[in-house]
Riboflavin biosynthesis protein
Amino acid sequence: MIIAKSIDEIIKPEQGACVTIGNFDGVHKGHQKLISSTCKKARANGLASVVVTFDPHPLRVLVNSKTPPFITLTSQKLELIALHKPDIILALNFTKEMAALSPEEFIQRYLIEPLGMKEMVVGYDYALGKGRSGNYETIVKLGQKHEYGVERLDPVIINDAVVSSSRIRDMVSEGNVWDVRPLLGRFYQVRGEVVHGMNRGGRLLGFPTANIKLEDELFPKKGVYAIRVEVEGKVLPGVANIGKNPTFGNEALSVEAHILDFSKDIYGKDIRVHFIQRIRSEKKFNGLDELKERIGIDIGLAREILSYPESQVRPGLHLSESESGAE
């Protein structure tokens, strides 16, 4: 597998390529269907399988600060795409100059000339080129001209609605982390480095916490969650608070994870937090004793939630064979 950030890093496949293209924020079930279908079609036709995506997300370039937080950081997105084992992942640097290209110019410059595209697989609502003018009908007409085939896939429907990045973003933002699992094929996850916090969890409260350095990604609604924490190849149960700790008058948003029955020093380590179920909203308490009592209740509820088999998480990102398109 080749993961490239420029067409200059790629040697044109001699046999030609079957390509899918998209932002793939979240790499949800709809995206997984696109990517796995592309890999299967490529194998069936003796072509190289290629997934083309963008970094940064086009909205960051075109809209800038008004964009919502994204479901996956680029590194996580590429890891999730790689699970399908395409021959090439091309994460193009998206620029305003690229956005100004016509559909034909983009397809020639980035898909036909460097990749030798023979087949293209797109989503039901995909469009490319300046002002998204390259809709399905346009892409098909260009395919007739440049001799490549086009297949458009129907949307994936779960719980009577289309699986989409915006739907997932709304659900996570509302704290519906349990219900979002079928759309993603996994629990919602954030990752980051464990940093020093305000030194209150263990010293004042008796519940040491791993404080995560926040990056530019989507975080669930403020509150307390049952979680599983992935650290050094192990998955451990825990409870997390997302918020500003109003009892202490904080202003900055933080994610503090208390790993159950765990005392190892993990400062500076990168961890992944899988959000299993929301327990309650953030609340201001009337002092430490009331807060400590509530934390004890939260931990008890988290242990109960995490006792269910459906809450299990395996270490590392993974997909089932049917999702990955394995033979």
Observations:
- The longest strand covers residues 270-280.
- The first helix runs from residue 29 to 44.
- The domain at 2-155 is CATH 3.40.50.620 (Rossmann fold).
- Confidence is low (pLDDT under 50) at residues 201-205, 320-327.
